[in-house]
Amino acid sequence: MFELGGIARTILNLLGEPDMQGRALSLQFVVALLAAIGSILLPPGEKEEVPGPN
């Protein structure tokens, strides 16, 4: 299992963004990318259902 922080740090290092604004944008991109990959790997029927307050 990969460490999310390590992946994000590696991608930031590859992008080479020295300023904090660029770093924040890159981090948002990484999070969006991971979310997209997660939604592709998990079919809609397989998502965990949260029980309602019954």
Tell me about this structure:
The protein has 54 residues and is mainly alpha-helical. The chain has one domain (4-41). It contains 2 helices and no strands.
Assembly classification = single chain
Distance between the termini: 36 Å
Query: Which value, in Å, is the CA radius of gyration?
Result: 15 Å
> How much strand content do the residues show?
under 5%
Largest sheet: none
The count of strands amounts to 0
Along the chain, the helix and strand elements come as HH
Low-confidence stretches: none
Structural class: mainly alpha
Number of domains: 1
Helical content (DSSP H or I, runs of 4+): 55-70%
Q: Number of helix segments?
A: 2
Described by the principal axes of the CA atoms, the overall outline is: elongated
The overall pLDDT average reads 69
Brief write-up:
This protein has helices spanning about 5-15, 20-40. It has about 55 residues and is mainly α. The relative contact order is 0.11.
Note the topology.
Blueprint: H1 4-15, H2 20-41
Using brief descriptors, characterize the structure shown.
mainly alpha
